[in-house]
Amino acid sequence: MKKKADSIRFSAFQLRVWEAALKIPFGSTRSYSWVARRIGSPQAVRAVGTALKNNPYPLVIPCHRVVKSNGDIGGYSRGRKAKEQLLELEKGMKNMFCLKGDISIE
DNA sequence: TGTCCGCGGGTGT
DNA sequence: ACACCCGCGGACA
Known about the structure:
single chain, mainly alpha, Arc Repressor Mutant, subunit A, 4% strand
């Protein structure tokens, strides 16, 4: 990603990561490795984390739904706490609307 | 559990 | 070109 006045220049890798993140169902979570596999770069798990961190719209892109594969919550730009609360919030909303299954965006 | 190392991509120098 | 830095994961003790 070139940092210039343009600000609309992102690498294809980042775009793929964010696109994959957008496919994560509301109120659900996926792992970093899941995203890595999904974008066709199974070993790029660390890069996925970096890409998610660099995402320009942290709330539009549901990067908070990406957690560690070992059950840990993982990191978050705005702090782990915020991430945790966001997930709880989505869970609550899901419950509020009496949603049994996942909501698929595509 | 805690550490350690490799991983791919991004950024600074 | 080089040397780090990471929102990780898996192996190993």
